[in-house]
Design brief:
Number of strands: 13
Low-confidence stretches: 1-10
CATH superfamily of the largest domain: P-loop containing nucleotide triphosphate hydrolases
Number of helices: 15
Strand order of the largest sheet: 9-8-10-11-7-12-13
CATH topology of the largest domain: Rossmann fold
Strand content: 15-25%
CATH architecture of the largest domain: 3-Layer(aba) Sandwich
Oligomer: single chain
Largest sheet: 7 strands, mixed
Order of helices and strands: HEEEHHEEEHHEHEEHEHEHHEEHHHHH
Number of domains: 2
């Protein structure tokens, strides 16, 4: 039997967030007039028995915001921020307006930063962080684990090297205490107006490593490339699903008369692209598959000449440098018994090619 519960009821939001965490969910979805829903292992599960009315839902959501955040939300109708559930974990929250009023998605931020080994990050991708300068791009769709990978890089440097790391994030998810390094984290909308404005000042702060939470628009992308040219190591994320799409996204945000210049600049500063996605595991939970591009001299020439469409074939033949396609990664996950073949095919960027690779694997076995 479905009944209506007020968001104003004691601990109702707390209990929903704690249940999301306890059930190892990744996201809690809240909408007016509809049951809450938890995403578990990539699938949505509705929680019948609880619904919220508009007035009280909006009241509780607004109570989570600072005055400055409330102003941003009122002006734009959408807001990203972090929320700490004391004694449980932190959440990244997206608050938005729709036809029913306000909706919210709470994404669980793991209570600890994962190591490279726990993430399953390939060795060649791990070694990218040892570069003294240039640009490392971590890409993938929403919910693919980009932030966890980015955090693993920061944690590795923080524990092992004497560096100054400056981040620009929206919102700040993982929080770092200084270890061997100095880590300064800046919140968009609070500490800086935006990614672009943060990047404008960051080079005056003597950083060794600059982390850009997301390259969202042309001037931020241009400034990120320029920062990588100044001798800094820059890490940034993009919502792209492959190295090809990443290069095309960067190039195509600029006018056509700038494409040649951007291609040359990208080819010179790029150190690598790590694209990732999450697949359901056989025994529950999810595991990451990775495409890895290492910017070798041959790859640099390819990008500089604008032959972006040839990147996949170079990834397939660049295994001696640690390169791999997403399908190559998925084959290994199936071979290890971590992922079912049908799940790999469902998530593959090229199912026909992956099917052939899986058949070849079985024949060799």
């Amino acid at each position: 039997m479905v009944y209506w519960r007020s968001m104003a009821d004691e601990n109702s939001l707390y209990q929903l967030l704690k249940q999301t965490f306890d059930r190892r969910g990744s996201d809690l979805h809240l909408k007016v007039g509809l049951p809450p829903a938890i995403r578990i292992d990539g699938a949505i599960t509705h929680l019948e028995g609880v619904r919220f009315n508009r007035r009280e839902f909006e009241k509780v959501m607004e109570a989570l915001l600072t005055p400055a955040q409330q102003d941003r939300f009122n002006a734009g109708g959408e807001l990203d921020f972090a929320y700490t559930l004391e004694g449980v974990c932190r959440f990244r929250v997206n608050l938005y307006r729709d036809v029913n009023g306000i909706g919210a998605v709470f994404r669980v931020i793991p209570s600890k930063v994962f190591t490279f080994e726990e993430i399953g990050l390939p060795l060649a991708a791990q070694k990218l962080i040892e570069q003294p300068n240039g640009l490392i791009l971590i890409t993938g769709p929403t919910g693919a684990g980009k932030t966890s990978t980015l955090a693993s890089y920061i944690s590795y440097v923080n524990a092992k090297a004497r560096r100054h790391i400056t981040t620009i994030e929206d919102p700040i998810e993982f929080q770092f205490d200084d270890q061997m390094s100095i880590v300064n984290q800046r919140q968009v909308g609070g500490d800086v107006p935006g990614f672009y404005e943060g990047l404008l000042t960051v080079l005056r702060q003597d950083p060794d490593i600059v982390v850009v939470g997301e390259m969202r628009e042309p001037r931020t992308i241009a400034l990120t490339l320029n920062a990588a040219e100044t001798g800094k190591l820059v890490l940034a994320t993009l919502h792209t699903t492959s190295a090809v799409q990443t290069a095309e996204r960067i190039i195509n945000v600029f006018p056509e008369n700038q494409h040649r210049q951007i291609l040359h600049q990208l080819s010179m500063v790029l150190r690598g692209v790590v694209s990732q996605t999450l697949l359901p595991k056989v025994d529950g939970g999810r595991v990451a598959a990775f495409e890895v591009l290492i910017n070798t001299s041959a790859m640099r020439s390819l990008i500089g000449e604008g032959k972006i469409h040839l990147i996949p074939s170079f990834l397939e033949t660049g295994t001696e440098f640690g390169m791999q396609t997403m399908d190559m990664s998925m084959v290994q996950l199936v071979k290890k018994g971590l992922v079912k073949a049908e799940e790999a095919l469902a998530h593959s960027p090229n199912p026909a090619n992956l099917k052939k690779m899986l058949q070849n694997m079985r024949e060799r076995e």
